[in-house]
Amino acid sequence: MRATYQESPLTGSPSMYRVILALLNFLAAIAIVAALAVQITDQALNDAFMPERYFSYFTIQTSLANIFVLVLSGFVGLQSVRDSGSMAALRANFVAYAIITGAVYNVLLRDLPSAPGAYVSPTQWPNEITHVWIPLYFALDWILNPHRHKLPGWTMIAGIAFPLAWFAFTLTRGHLTGWYPYAFLNPGGPAGWGGVWIYAAGIGLIIIALVSATALINLIHHKLHPANQLDS
Fold it and tell me: What is the 3-state secondary structure (H, E, C) of 127-163?
């Protein structure tokens, strides 16, 4: 008979492979902390740090959340044989956020010229950490780490909630202040509101597709590792 979670509980001694992945989570979290600290310090030393703008970027907000998710999943990985359903859902959504962050930056933003008079840092490795290496790490960890509960049915709804809240806040704040963290969200641009909604809808659909992809990968893991399956 196939093992179930009741027969194979979450608690217990994790495998060496799981321990290594947990330690890598801590290293990834440290890399994000270092990247953000260097960015903030560099901007502050050049009188260019504006907290109300810096912390409005989707990349920065998700990076701060990534630190929490990585540290939490690292501790969970050291103390249990697999992630719970809630932990798996949390990680699945942040895989999607990390990938969309990297994709938007590298496709839409990397080669854009800076605004006239804006400070451009000569130190670019923090951008590479948050927009390239961390998204790659999240994606690879999800593919290579099979120690997860099946994803709960509410994973998709929870995954869309944060980006929707961020879009609503960003557009409201931009309407009140005239500043938008990303040019493609500015309705005063050439594409107008139509362009804003097209970008928003496109990014939303990509997030849904990415969360669906994480669910598919998770399903494949459970087919390959039936002891991680939970009987319905």
Answer: HHHHHHHHHHHHHHHHHHCCCECCCCCCHHHHHHHHH
